[in-house]
Predict the 3D structure of the following.
Amino acid sequence: MMRLLAARADRRRPMPMPVAATGRTPIRRRTFLALAALLACFVAIAAQLLRLGLRQEADLHLNVAEPIGQSWSRPDIVDRNGQLLATDVASHSLYADPQLVLDLDEVIEKVTAILGGLDRAEVRRALADRSRRFTWIARGLSPRQAQLIHDLGLPALAFRTELKRVYPLGPLAGHLLGTVNVDNKGLAGLERWLDETAKVEAVHGPERSDKPALRLALDVGVQHALAEELQEAVRRYSASGAAGLVLDLTDGEILAAASLPGADPARPADWLDLRHADKLLAGSFELGSVFKTLTVAMALEAGVADLDTVYDVRRPLTIGAYTITDLHPSSRPLNLREIFLHSSNVGAGLVALDLGADRQRQFLAKLGLLEPLRTQVGLSAAPQLPKHWGRIETVTISYGHGLAVAPLQLAAAMGAAISGAQLSPTLLAGEARPHPKPLLAPATSARIREILRLNVTSSAGTGRRADAEGYRVGGKTGTAEMPGRGGYQAKAVISSFIGAFPMDAPKYLTLVMLFEPEPVAGLAPGITAGLNAAPTTARIVHRIAPVLGVLPRPIGASEPKEGPFDALTAAQ
Amino acid sequence: MLRIINSALLLLTLVAVFALYAIKYDARRLEARINMQERDLEKLENHVAVLVAERAHLARPKALEPLARNLGLAPIAPRQYLRLEALPAADTGR
């Protein structure tokens, strides 16, 4: 213990100062070393500066803070063959820093001279607020406009590059594509569906989406032919509007859908104008005698009648205070096949009365006509059902009055009657979907195909003018008076034709609707669908069948017998 | 001896500092070049997108149809189809 204390006492004793051999003190030597180190640092910096100077590279970058603005990057939309329908491109958007405005009047004058659509008062209000450092002036400028603004050299103005949605095919298929707002966010149609299914990304610059393109079932060639022929029909029959559809019967894919007046995706204002509303989905209409196809299918399926069952249609049908008559009353009883061909309201009413209201409602519900139809562009307009489904409603619904549905919904129901299987329309191509559920007995759908074809080939049929030579079209006409003040208007009708081709093995369903067509001297003496919607269908089929690869029956060849058509097998 | 080692180490440290500084500067310059090239790539991608959109616009059916009609073309008519067996036998020259 004593030795340990002695050792600690030795350590506390001060050490003798060593003297360097050179005669310098250690402090001076350390100072010298520190100075040498500093000198070395300066030499290193000088060497680096010299190196940078000799390389002559401008490595300095001025980072300018960009204003924060969020937009949405969207995947491309293409048709079934890969043709581009919608894409994002980088465009210039003009903004201003009000604090940098030197002469307010000069800025407003020069900018509005280049951008004609700008509201001067609004620009003045935005630029006059000097408490702000950022305000949008105009979004999505064309390269030329951006260059002209840039050339003004006004210090308060600057550009931001952001994505803008463009539609290279213009208004073609506009209702299906929908539209976006200035931030590239989907507002309607498939564009909104892209947002709802999280296929868009928020971005702060012109960063294009790396998601795969959305491939639609639509065929641009078919869509164009349909839209052109409908436009021509509107002109020819002085109609106020039109709608058309081409649907693949085996898988429900919508190959073309048009509604006139159309909606341009580049003009979001079209979606606020009711005149431009999509007639196929956004409206529900009474479509008249087309419904008789379903009435016949109903009777065949329930077993209350076959095509040879005879009904006495010579006298008008009276239900309470209402009397149902035919346009051209028959002087003899007609069988079910003839009732369909003559489009007899009385006959359809008698068939429906045989069935009863309950079975009629159940059948229509099975075909999906009593609930809105859901597609990628949203729910269809809700069907307008009768408040009380009594005898008179049963009769009027049998020939297409008293029940209003969206045309696409009726087309799907007609497709089901033709193929015998459930048909769910879709806008997407190659979608993995469950096999269609059988809805009708094969014999029922076979009889429906038979009478639809007969309605076009028979001299008594109302759809004779729909016979596109060689393509075996079948279908049913419908002429429905439009409701107006004080009841139905006899001279304002919706004429429609729903058909399919080739009827020996139906592959495609077509729908044509014309709103308020007028008689045309020498062409269509009346306004019934057989005179306008049916021939329009023939023209459409002539144009689209070659595009769809449907081979015509050689001229002069006999009508082929129907093969063992089965929509379920076809779909599989 | 110790002094020589210390001096050598100091010199080595200075060289390492200089080298590190130079490498860091090179890395920053490379990063700037990458950013610039990424920006160029983005610009090119956007130019390609514009060109693809323009091509689709020029090839739209509404623009092509009048051109095709002017050339006398029309949708194929059913009469233009023939069954193979309806064709005349080929003259093989034998």
